[in-house]
Amino acid sequence: MTISVAFIGLGVMGYPMAGFLQKQGHKVTVFNRSSGKAEAWAAEFGGKMALTPRAAAEGAEFVFACVGNDDDLRQVTLGEEGAFAGMSSGTVFVDHTTTSAQVAKELAEFAQGKGIDFFDAPVSGGQAGAESGKLTVMVGGCEANYSKVANIIQCYARCVERLGPVGSGQLCKMVNQICIAGVVQGLAEGLHFAKAAGLDASQVVDVISKGAAQSWQMENRYKTMLSNDYEHGFAVDWMRKDLAIVLDESKRNNTRLALTERVDQYYAEVQKMGGGRWDTSSLLARLEAELLDDSYKQD
To answer: Using one digit for the tens of pLDDT, what is the confidence trace for 216-273?
Structure first.
């Protein structure tokens, strides 16, 4: 069934996600702060573009957003030119941005006052998952309309799961980022150790990936890590944004995240190395730079 859809935010994730909606036969109107990106998307996929979030949302049954952070989300939803101003009662807003659970609840309350259903639905799978249509989507929101939301999200996802009320999707994404941070640091240390021990690191991974050490990060990142290629995937700057959200939430629920705090500081060191736009597997680059510094000190 063809549905009128708006998609706000055409970054490395939103651009292909909106494309999948259009390719599945939906009528998509896009908005992006830099209009050139929206023009390029419309030329590639054949959809429409709008000059404001409100204009994009007018007449849409579903409005999707995938922007940068809490403030970005408020900017595209609230105010006279925000998406909520263009939406009608009975429509649905789905936010794919990774934000705090607090902003999801704040905007959901505002949307409810206008008769709009709000779902927080952060994603995992990175740019590759968005481009292949195989994202994992973690959803928070009312159960009543969830099936409708899930059906349309499946245009670009391999897994869609509701975790509970609004905010639950963002909390689940925080767990996701906590786990990734620890796994990537462990992989970086393992490869660093293997090389220092004189082993063939690729052969080591080939062996241990068939056992309990196997992970998505190991299978998809070890080759680029060993070749010092960090120009793809999820950027360190964005991971630090996400971990800041995690660590702020941990203060609210009184959890201890010692490893997450440590890895966040390691990423801060990567940023100081000029690696803010490197992907998150660049934790290995930090270890190797540290080893190089030690050798200079010894000389």
So the answer is: 999 999 999 999 999 987 999 999 999 999 999 999 999 999 999 999 999 999 999 9
Determine phi and psi for 50, rounding to 5 degrees: -125, 160
> Exactly one of 105, 173, 195, 272 is catalytic; which is it?
173
Q: What span, in angstroms and rounded, lies between the C-alpha atoms of 68 and 246? A: 16
Report the C-alpha gap between 154 and 160 in whole angstroms.
Answer: 7
Q: Going from the N-terminus, what domains does the chain have, and what CATH number goes with each?
A: 4-165 (3.40.50.720), 171-298 (1.10.1040.10)
- Whole-model pTM? 0.93
* CA atoms of 287 and 190, how far apart (whole Å): 11
Q: Please, where are the H alpha helices in 81-167?
A: 83-86, 101-112, 126-132, 146-153
For 296, other C-beta atoms within 10 Å of its C-beta total 8
Instruction: Judge whether 195 counts as a catalytic residue.
Output: no
